[in-house]
Design a protein that fits this description.
The protein is α/β, with parallel strands linked by helices and about 290 residues long. The chain folds into two domains: about 140 residues, Leucine Dehydrogenase, chain A, domain 1 (Rossmann fold, 3-Layer(aba) Sandwich); about 140 residues, Rossmann fold (3-Layer(aba) Sandwich), CATH 3.40.50. It is built from ten helices and twelve strands. The strands form two sheets. It has a six-stranded mixed sheet with strand order 2-1-3-5-6-4, sandwiched between helices. Helix 4 crosses helix 5 and helix 4 crosses helix 9. The two termini are about 35 Å apart. About 45% of the residues are buried. The chain binds 2'-monophosphoadenosine-5'-diphosphate (ATR). The site of 2'-monophosphoadenosine-5'-diphosphate has 14 residues, from helix 5.
């Protein structure tokens, strides 16, 4: 259980946390996590470290040496760090990426909170029950993999993956259980039809991300009115895909929640306490709009 901070000051009991990546100076994780520590009174401080592939092994040794309690791992280290920790959570192993490290007295365990963070956000913000739903996922990269893995745990009727390079969609579907798991790769010419039948359509590609804000992976008319359109992108907060879906009469779900909840899960793994999600969201929104 994490120690609480007296009078809000950093003192000789303060525990260090951080995020590593290359680049890293754009990261909103430090302001979000420090707000979470302040809000809960936990005696921790969270900073950003610019770590390259060359310095990653020394950094991980440093985590052990300094007794850092927790680390978030972002691009490009989510794969390489798996070789450097002591244990990997089964979910992170199946996804093939680690974004959160928990240090238990020098033993480092790697987790992946991206997929579960996304699903918690989708359930809390857009669609509380995913069981029996027909879901289409556009994109078959690393982000898609974590999300598909976590969606399958919710027992949807089907998860159909579409990708510009269809072979990648097929590989992803096969590696996570294929048809037996309710997982199908669909050819691009069938995407419109599948979207029309879907309860939830999720964009995991970078199409529509700043600065290409006018682009959308599908037409709004492909969506069923009342269905959920969900986008992992949070810059802009409302992508062209979401704008088109909204005009079509769909419910929309942006990518900010995934970022907040992947951090919320990391906070909960490290501290054993519920994350102050609304305060975290408020801080990130303020920073994005500054
Ligand atoms: P991430 O880890 O963010 O998912 P990634 O592994 O590079 O990143 O995957 C990016 C995804 O966005 C892929 O599904 C990619 O499609 P390809 O596999 O065909 O490359 C998709 N993507 C990126 N740019 C795209 C574009 N302009 N049109 C369609 N799909 C695109």
């Amino acid at each position: 259980m994490a120690e609480h901070r007296l009078n809000g000051t950093i003192d000789s009991h303060t525990v260090l946390y951080g995020v590593i990546g290359d680049p890293i100076r754009h990261s909103k994780s430090p302001i979000m996590m420090n707000r979470a520590f302040r809000e809960t009174g936990i005696n921790g401080v969270y900073t950003a470290f610019h770590i390259t592939s060359e310095t990653l092994p020394a950094f991980v040794d440093g985590v052990r040496a300094m007794g850092m309690r927790g680390v978030n791992v972002t691009i490009p280290h989510k794969l390489q760090v798996m070789e450097l920790v002591d244990e990997i959570d089964p979910g992170a192993l199946a996804i093939g990426a680690v974004n959160t490290i928990v240090n238990e007295n020098g033993k480092l365990t790697g987790y992946n909170t991206d997929g579960i963070g996304y699903v918690r956000s989708l359930k809390e913000e857009a669609e509380s029950g995913l069981a029996g739903k027909r879901i289409v996922v556009i994109g078959a990269g690393g982000a898609s993999r974590g999300i598909v893995y976590s969606l399958l745990k919710e027992k949807p009727e089907s998860v159909a993956i579409s990708n510009r390079t269809v072979e990648r969609a097929e590989q992803l579907a096969d590696s996570l259980g294929g048809e037996a798991a309710g997982l199908t790769a669909i050819p691009n010419e069938k995407l419109e039809q599948w979207c029309g039948d879907a309860d939830i359509v999720i964009n995991t590609t970078s199409v529509g991300m700043f600065p290409n804000v006018g682009q959308s992976p599908i037409e709004g008319s492909w969506m069923k009115p009342g269905a959920v359109a969900s986008d992992l992108i949070y810059n802009p907060l409302k992508t062209e895909f979401l704008l088109r879906a909204e005009a079509r009469g769909c419910r929309i779900h942006g990518g900010l929640g995934m970022f907040i909840y992947q951090g919320a899960y990391a906070f909960e793994y490290w501290t054993g306490q519920a994350a102050p999600v609304s305060a975290m969201r408020e801080t990130v929104l303020e920073a994005l709009q500054a």
